[in-house]
Structure formats: structure tokens, C-alpha cells
From TrEMBL:
This is Saccharolysin. CDD domains: M3A_TOP. GO terms for biological process: peptide metabolic process; proteolysis. It comes from Fusarium oxysporum f. sp. rapae. One of its GO terms (cellular component) is mitochondrial intermembrane space.
């Protein structure tokens, strides 16, 4: 939906069970809790770097061997202490960011080391971090400058190149060089509306995105530019093009065709342009509504019985007055949603909350209806049967029919397993009601699934999510994750402390290179064995705040590419998450599913940082949509590996690692309710396909999206809903709160399941036996991650696998026989 090729990569926040169709739905990439065999693996063996101390000793020291010996022993002791972490204070200094009011002595020695002790070779990046000092006025001015510069480039190309002389060098190259420069600024200008606390800045950023989109539509429908690109394409046989250049030439030509340049000039083309501009306006408005959503519901403390105070501190919540006297206010954000839906004993509380949350974005209902109607009209103008046919043509699946076959087959094969899992949960509900002296009518509702799944996990597997989270404070867990990426892929992460930020900042001010005081920055390098080269910057914005992007995502802020004079421009990538904040009594603690989410999002960031493409067009995560999740989905498997979980864990009070028996119990739940989770994903994917594949344009105009969603959920999930309590099938509009449908994943949500096929194939082929295999990790980095989308994805998959991709591992993880 934006002129640049990269949309935010959104990732999971929790397991999506069938009732998660009433949750804040971020795509759950590994949310299916797939089946896997887990064998004990070797503990991580991550070496510590050497620390060299240089001291000038007085000549008199030579006459004092005892003194020299004692001094040497003291230095050695300090060195051993400081070398306990491979990452020095690059990781440990996170404690200063996540500090809570607790005795300093509970923090490990490794955590207290400062990042300024990183070796000099990792302290002088060749590129400064970007500035976040924009004002509403500067955003508007910079937006105009970038659009004017691009127009000048396009005008120059069309004025100076004739069809017979058109080539990649004189047509595509100047356009791509301009895109490199424009993307470097544009993505940050449009990023403010996701993260800024300043309303005027957010509004200006939103306006900039709208202006860029409108300008992009105009550019993409310039017939003179298309004719030049088409001529360069026609002359391609006489040009010595690299694979990346040939690929981008093909992609660019198709882009113009898909933007109406094969339509005859006149009413049809004009209508197509009108639709594209209206769609841009509607999609931006809908996303703004989601970012600024402030819905809430009031409950009495009694209605919240069972919810742990560590998760929701009732005393800290806003107190009601008037008709809400005696009640407290809960939002629909993650930090309230998941604790309530999993722990609130009162089923009526969960029911009320589920219905209210499903209607939190009703303002987007008419917007969504207009969007799907306009998309269908535009696709038909171009000669496609529907919007899905237009969108999927350029992806790995190629056709809506192939996607339907994949989803329908999976649905049929999972239905029986889903029913068995629901029946097992129903037994827990029956026992619960008997113990509480309540009448049980054999009904099982969508708001029951997470609640009784948690009870099942505790009773049957002795897994207490809250107890496990004590071993995963954010600071040490994230530090451990970076160590894993160092070991597997050969990276080095150096956190930039305030003094380092000031030194590297173009303005000399540390605060100017972050958008909020909570944000952390890392410079990222190759390790010594790989040449110690700089790779880019990693930003981390972990906690929720008002008007911030509400889910968990990775945003590319500056792409990597090769400049016109042959130098490297390095990428800048940001993890924007919403994990609970630390309290005066405890640090921020991660549930296991949040550990998986953070690892997944970091995987997207690593994909960006590993990118080695000539053009920003294909950098990092700029792959087709039904592959882009595969690298991060593959990495989620590390969070179900015993040795990795052990290495990531450290109890926030005792500093002890998680016991092996607890790890064994946790890993045994990986497969728990996997059919329910996959069916939940299928509901979303099938809804997406249904609204984007109407039989006729009249059908989409009459379509009731809320009814379609609730019908699919009711038919597929195996659970009852408000419709079974007399509310009908129009009780909620969950679809209106899902940003994917208006954020680039339209007719593409199937990709979360589709890319799982590739992720599991790669993992089981090369990493299942030894996830810490640095040799395979570096081969994967160079073969898959570095290439971004610069060649067709199937080509580098074949190269990495050494064969055609297989679905065998995917079906095995789901406990199903392979169709291969």
C-alpha cells in the first residue's frame, strides 16, 4: 500500500487458538504450536572474547617480582570476571534500561559491565545513526523535496532516452538510485505516526504517507516511464545483466502493467487511478484508527477474580465514577487482554470482554467494506477475476485456486484433531464447574479456550506460565538471544550507551538519535572471523505507550544498498513491541509465547541486517509475502529447544537457570492444541480469501464482512460464540481490528501457513539436530538472508536445501501424514 516495497513485518504475540479470533490478532507465525520431536541437545558453548590489558610498569617493578605477581593475578581476576559474557556489556548494560527498584546485588556481574568496554574496532561505525529530530514542518518540506527529486529523475529519463537506446543502465539504474536515496528518508518520515508521542508529529507523518502514496500512484501510472522501462525490457537480450538486475527489470515492468498501463487512456484508466488514490486514503485512515484506538471496558474487582496481580495490578487501574463506581478500567491492549482471557474465573467476564474487544474497531467497518469493494473493481478493470487473482499472481502460490486447495485440504485434515482437542478442554470445563457447584450444559465457547488451555497445561503438564516467566526477564533474555545470533550467524552486537550515542550523533546530542527515551540502540558488526565489518543499527522499543503501534513488528527504517559511487549504505531496523513494563517490584517478565515472539521479531531484524543487495528494492525482508515470514518462523524453533531455553533463562531473583524438568514439561506442550491453533489461522486466511474472491462485483457490494467472519469462525473453530446465545451472526466485527487486511497482507494472510512449509523444511533439514551449528548458520545467512528478494525465492531455497522444497516436515509437525 506504500510506494516503497517494504511494509512492516508483523509477527505473533500469542498462540492463536480458535477463540483467538476474538483476540488482538497479530499473525501468529509459529502460533500453531506445531509438532516436533525433541532430543537433548548440547548446551550452548559460546566462547568469551579475550580481553587484553596493557599496563606500563615502573622499572622498579622488575625489582619487585612479588608485587608484579600480585598485580598480574589481580588483572587476571578482573579479566576472568569481565569475560563471562561474549557480548561484554554490549548485552549486560540493558539492565540500566530495564532497571526496577531492587537491591543492586541481585544483578549479575555480567549485567553490570558497561558497553563502553567493547573493543575499539566495534566502536566506530562508518555510518552515523539516523536523526529523529523532525518537526511537522520539516516532515512536510522533506516530503515535497523527495517527491520533486523523484519527478525530476523520471522526467530526465523519459526526455533523454529513446526506445531503441533504452537499457537498464540509462532507464532502470537512475530510477533505482533515486529509490535508494528516497527510501533512506521516506521510511523514517512515515515511521513517526507509529511511535511518536507528539500528536502533531504523528499527524504530519500520516499526511506524509498519504502524499507519498498519491505521488507513487501518479508515478506508477506514467505512460512515458512505462514505455521507457518496457523498451529496456525489450532490449534486455543485448545487455549483460546480473540476476538482481534482470529480476528488478521484470518486477518493475510488471508493476506498471499491474497499475493500469495496459488499459487504454481514457475513462477506465482514470477510474483506476481514482480507485488507487481512494484506497490509499482509506487504508491510512483505518491504520490510524487502529493505532489510536482507546477502547476499554469496566469491571468490578470481583469480576476479575483469578487474574494474577503480577499481570494486572487492579490497584493501579483507573477507578470509575458515576455508573462505573466501584469498577476499574481495562483496555484491549495485550497487557490486559491475555491475562484476563486466560485467568479470569468468571466466564461472563471473559464473554463480555471478548465481545467488547471484537467491536473495538467498529469505526473501520464501513471503511473495510469500501476497501474490499474498490479492490475488486480495480482488479476487474485490469482483467482479473478478483483482487486475490491480482495479488497472488506475483507470489509463490501464483493463483487463488492453489491457495484455496492448500487451505481447504489443511482444514479437512485438521477438523477431526481440532474436535478431539476441544473435547479434551471441555472435560476440564466440566470438572471445573463441578468443583464450583455450577451447572454444566456441555457447551464450550470461544472465550473458554485460552482459559481451559491454561488449566490443561497446568494440570496435565505441570506447566505454570507465570512461574516460567520468572526465568525470562526481558533484559537477560534479550541478551541471550543476541548471543545466539552471534554464535549462529557471526554477528556482534554493541549497545550504544548515552555517551556513545552523543559521540555518534550527527548533532552531538544522544537524545536526537532515538524517538523515545525508552528506545535502545545497537550497532551490529561481523565477528572477527568474518572480518569485523559493520552491518547496521538495531533499535529496540519494547513497551506499550499511548498512541504507539499496538502489536509487535519489525520496521525497516533505512534499507541497505550500494551507493552510486560503490560504497555501502547500511540498514537501520527497529523492533517495535508491546511487552509489559517493569514495576517497582519486578522487572518485565516474558511468558514463553512472548519469548517466541521476541525471537521471531529479532529474526526479521536480522534478515534486514544481513541483507547484501545492490538495490534497496530487494533489501532484507523485501521478498514475496508468502515467503517473508519463513526465516523468522524457522527461528521460533530455537525457543522450543531445551539447550537454548536453558541458555536464555535466568531467574530474576536467584539468577538460577530454569530447571531441566521444567524445560522438559514446557517443551512437551509444543504440540498441545496444535490443531485448534492451526484452525484459528485457517479462519483468518479463509476469511481473507473469501472477501477478496467474490463471484461478481455485485456480490462484494452486498457482502457483510462481519457475518462472513463470524460464520467461518463458528463453522471451523469447533467452539460456540455469541451467535449460540441468541446474538445472531452480526454480533461482532473482529475483522475490522486486524491491521493486516489494510496493511499489505490483503489476499496474503494465507502466507503465514504457506511459509511455515518452507521454515520447517529448512529447520528439520539442517538445524534440528544442532540448532547452534555455526557452519550451517553462516551458510543460511549467505544463501538465504543476504539475498533478500534479489532473485526468485524458490531459487535460493533450492540452493540452500539442495533439492525442491518439501511439505513433509510441515505435516509431520501438525501430526498429519505428508501429502508429498
Amino acid at each position: 500500500m506504500t510506494p516503497h516495497p517494504i511494509a512492516p513485518r508483523i509477527a505473533p504475540s500469542c498462540r492463536i487458538y480458535s477463540n483467538a479470533l476474538s483476540t488482538p490478532l497479530t499473525p501468529r507465525n509459529g502460533s500453531i504450536d506445531l509438532v516436533s520431536e525433541h532430543k537433548p541437545l548440547l548446551q550452548l558453548n559460546i566462547p568469551s572474547p579475550s580481553i587484553i590489558f596493557i599496563s606500563k610498569l615502573d622499572k622498579r617493578a622488575s625489582r619487585r617480582p612479588l608485587l608484579l605477581l600480585l598485580l598480574s593475578l589481580f588483572i587476571l581476576l578482573v579479566a576472568v570476571t569481565l569475560a563471562s559474557s561474549r557480548a561484554f556489556s554490549r548485552l549486560g548494560s540493558l539492565v540500566n534500561h530495564f532497571r526496577f527498584q531492587a537491591p543492586r546485588t541481585i544483578l549479575s556481574r555480567r549485567q553490570l559491565v558497561t558497553s563502553t568496554m567493547a573493543p575499539d574496532k566495534y566502536r566506530n561505525p562508518p555510518q552515523a545513526p539516523p536523526l529523529f529530530t523532525a518537526t511537522p514542518e520539516s516532515i512536510a518540506a522533506d516530503t515535497k523535496k523527495l517527491c520533486d527529486a523523484t519527478k525530476n529523475v523520471l522526467d530526465s529519463v523519459t526526455a533523454n532516452v529513446t526506445a531503441d537506446k533504452a537499457s537498464f543502465a540509462n532507464v532502470l539504474e537512475p530510477i533505482l538510485i533515486d529509490e535508494n536515496l528516497a527510501a533512506t528518508q521516506r521510511r523514517i518520515l512515515t515511521f513517526y505516526h507509529h511511535v511518536s508521542t507528539n500528536k502533531e508529529l504523528r499527524d504530519a507523518s500520516t499526511e506524509a504517507e498519504s502524499a507519498f502514496n498519491d505521488f507513487g500512484i501518479e508515478c506508477n501510472m506514467r505512460e512515458d516511464v512505462f514505455n521507457a522501462v518496457d523498451a529496456a525490457y525489450a532490449n534486455r537480450a543485448s545487455q549483460d545483466l546480473t540476476k538482481e538486475q534482470a529480476h528488478v527489470l521484470e518486477k518493475e515492468r510488471q508493476k506498471y502493467i499491474r497499475n493500469g498501463l495496459r488499459l487504454p487512456a481514457g475513462p477506465k484508466r482514470d477510474r483506476f487511478k481514482e480507485i488507487q488514490k481512494r484506497l490509499s486514503e482509506l487504508e491510512i485512515k483505518a491504520q490510524k484508527n487502529l493505532n489510536e484506538e482507546k477502547g476499554a471496558i469496566w469491571f468490578t474487582p470481583e469480576e476479575l477474580k483469578g487474574v494474577p496481580s503480577d499481570d494486572i495490578d487492579i490497584d493501579s487501574l483507573e477507578k470509575g465514577t458515576g455508573e462505573n463506581e466501584g469498577k476499574v478500567k481495562l483496555s484491549f491492549k495485550y497487557n490486559h487482554y491475555f491475562p484476563l482471557i486466560k485467568y479470569a474465573i468468571d466466564a461472563d467476564t471473559r464473554r463480555k470482554y471478548t465481545i467488547a474487544e471484537s467491536n473495538k474497531a467498529n469505526v473501520n467497518v464501513p471503511i473495510f467494506q469500501e476497501i474490499i469493494t474498490l479492490r475488486d473493481e480495480a482488479a476487474r478493470l485490469l482483467g482479473y477475476d478478483n483482487h486475490a487473482a491480482l495479488r497472488i499472481e506475483e507470489k509463490m502460490a501464483k493463483t487463488p485456486a492453489a491457495v484455496r486447495t492448500f487451505l481447504d485440504d489443511l482444514r479437512n485434515r485438521l477438523t477431526e484433531g481440532g474436535a478431539k482437542e476441544i473435547n479434551a478442554l471441555k472435560e476440564y470445563k466440566k470438572k471445573d464447574y463441578e468443583e464450583r457447584g455450577l451447572s454444566f450444559d456441555d457447551s464450550f465457547y470461544m472465550w473458554d479456550t485460552s482459559f481451559y488451555s491454561r488449566i490443561q497445561k497446568e494440570k496435565e503438564y505441570s506447566v505454570d506460565e507465570a512461574a516460567i516467566s520468572q526465568y525470562f526477564p526481558v533484559e537477560s533474555t534479550f541478551a541471550g538471544m543476541l548471543k545466539i545470533f552471534e554464535e549462529i550467524f557471526g554477528f556482534v552486537f554493541v549497545e550504544l550507551k548515552p555517551e556513545e550515542r552523543a559521540r555518534l550523533s550527527p548533532t552531538g546530542k544522544a537524545e536526537d538519535i532515538v524517538w523515545h527515551e525508552d528506545v535502545l540502540i545497537y550497532s551490529v558488526w561481523d565477528d572477527e572471523a568474518s572480518g569485523s565489518s559493520f552491518n547496521g543499527y538495531l533499535y529496540l522499543d519494547l513497551h506499550p505507550r499511548d498512541n504507539k503501534y499496538g502489536h509487535n513488528a519489525n520496521f525497516n527504517l533505512e534499507p541497505g544498498y550500494v551507493t552510486e559511487d560503490g560504497k555501502k549504505h547500511y540498514p537501520v531496523t527497529a523492533l517495535v513491541c508491546n511487552f509489559s513494563k517493569p514495576t517497582p517490584k519486578k522487572p518485565s517478565l516474558l511468558k514463553h509465547h512472548e519469548v517466541v515472539t521476541l525471537f521471531h521479531e529479532l529474526g526479521h531484524g536480522i534478515h534486514d541486517l544481513a541483507g547484501r543487495t545492490r538495490y534497496s528494492y530487494f533489501h532484507g525482508t523485501s521478498t514475496v509475502l508468502d515467503f517473508v515470514e519463513a526465516p523468522s518462523q524457522m527461528l521460533e524453533n530455537w525457543c522450543w529447544t531445551p539447550s537454548v531455553l536453558k541458555s536464555l533463562s535466568k531467574h530474576w531473583e536467584t539468577q538460577e537457570q530454569i530447571p531441566d524438568e521444567l524445560i522438559e514439561k514446557l517443551v512437551s506442550t509444543k504440540r498441545l492444541n496444535s490443531a485448534i491453533g492451526a484452525l484459528g489461522q485457517l479462519v483468518i486466511g479463509l476469511f481473507d480469501m473469501t472477501v477478496h474472491t467474490p463471484e461478481s462485483h455485485e456480490d462484494v457490494k452486498k457482502l457483510n464482512a462481519g457475518r462472513v467472519w463470524n460464520t467461518l469462525r463458528h463453522e471451523i473453530s469447533g467452539t460456540k460464540g455469541p451467535e449460540d446465545l441468541g446474538e445472531g451472526l452480526e454480533w461482532g466485527n473482529r475483522h475490522a481490528g486486524i491491521g493486516h487486511f489494510i496493511g499489505g497482507y490483503d489476499a496474503g494472510y494465507y502466507g503465514y501457513l504457506y511459509s511455515e512449509v518452507f521454515s520447517l523444511d529448512m529447520f528439520h533439514s539442517f538445524f534440528a539436530k544442532n540448532p547452534m551449528d555455526g557452519k550451517e548458520g553462516r551458510r543460511y545467512r549467505h544463501t538465504v538472508l543476504e539475498r533478500g528478494g534479489s532473485i526468485p525465492e524458490l531459487e535460493f531455497l533450492r540452493e540452500f536445501l539442495g533439492r525442491e522444497p518439501s511439505s513433509e516436515a510441515f505435516y509431520k509437525e501438525l501430526g498429519l501424514a505428508s501429502t508429498a
